[in-house]
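Researcher: Here's the sequence for the chain we discussed earlier.
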Amino acid sequence: MAFKRVKLKELLFREKTLISRLNNVTEWTPETARVANALTKLHEHLDDGVYEIPEDEWEELDRLTYYGG
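Model: Thanks. This is the structure I predict for it:
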């Protein structure tokens, strides 16, 4: 599995963006589930203090952060 090294500030930016997408959610949809799942994985990396993320997880974060799904 390939890993991508990322800066902490980039992870924190993505965390902030994903949290803002979940604010005021009134209905659970497949898209909000994907955002919540990506946020959970992101928090696992932050909690571990490891700033290398599997490429597939990074691509999902990138898609959810910049392209809205």
